[in-house]
TrEMBL record:
Keyword entries, A-Z: Membrane, Transmembrane, Transmembrane helix
Name of the protein this chain belongs to: ZIP family zinc transporter
Transmembrane segments: 7-27, 34-52, 64-85, 172-192, 198-218, 230-248
Length: 251
């Protein structure tokens, strides 16, 4: 029971970064280049975490085939869900509204629901692996938590700024991110309790699935937003985020 509570708390900690980012994006007029730079940094952090904390561990536990197949399945599942949501108005859910605007409800009916579901699609895999990380020796992977937290801040910041530009109310914006933070808690608990009942090989495969979904999300939603306003520096900033996460995983 203690580990279950711990999994939920770590999931909540990581998910709360979305609310922090949303508060910054909705309440302050953050320059577009700052948003893009932070998004690029968060993308680098997640890429490193996926490489060394998720796919790397899946490979060590189950071998190349389960790790590779799981990663592909995760990417396909995320891409399929993303395509479905994009057709309903959530294509630019992480955009701040500067280069690519999110649609308002009047422009595309149901886009508000699609945006909320898109945020859920982005957040669940990240939180699930936090719970799964507790299975390895009973201690959470602080690198994974840090990576998700750091990447969630720019996600919430950029998306909430875009929601505000599209005319979404404050109640809607913070309601969405509060719900995703709560879902992050549940997802982390799910990762520990349900996935933890499987064999090590299955756990490794599930970890790889989450890794594939996260990597597809980074490539499809985070990097394009960063490139729009920081394309001259995006490579350097992304590598900086990668190295910070890499250093954390080796300390």
């Amino acid at each position: 029971m203690v580990e279950v509570v711990e999994a939920g708390l770590w999931g909540l900690v990581a998910g709360s970064a979305l609310l922090l980012g949303a508060a910054l994006g909705y309440g302050l007029r953050v320059p577009q280049k700052v948003i893009a730079t932070v998004m690029a940094f968060g993308a680098g952090v997640l890429i490193s975490a996926v490489s060394f904390e998720l796919v790397g561990e899946a490979y060590e536990e189950a071998g190349l085939a389960p790790a590779a197949v799981g990663t592909l399945i995760g990417a396909v599942a995320y891409t399929g869900g993303n395509v479905w949501l994009a057709r309903r108005g959530a294509r630019h859910r992480k955009r701040s509204g500067h280069a690519q605007a999110q649609p308002s409800e009047s422009e595309q009916g149901g886009s508000g629901t699609a945006l909320a579901l898109g945020a859920l699609l982005d957040g669940v895999p990240e939180s699930a692996v936090i719970g799964v990380s507790l299975l390895d020796g009973g201690a959470v992977s602080l690198v994974t938590v840090a990576a998700v937290f750091i990447s969630n801040v720019p996600e919430g910041l950029s998306s909430s700024a875009g929601m505000k530009r599209a005319g979404r109310t404050k109640g809607y914006v913070f309601g969405v991110w509060a719900a995703i933070a709560a879902a992050s808690t549940v997802s982390a608990v799910f990762g520990y309790t349900v996935v933890g009942s499987f064999s090590p090989a299955v756990i490794a495969a599930v970890t790889a699935v989450a890794a594939g979904a996260i990597l597809a999300m980074v490539a499809d939603t985070m990097i394009p937003e960063a490139y729009d306003d920081a394309h001259l520096a995006i490579g350097l900033v992304t590598v900086s985020g990668f190295l910070v996460s890499f250093a954390l995983s080796h300390t």
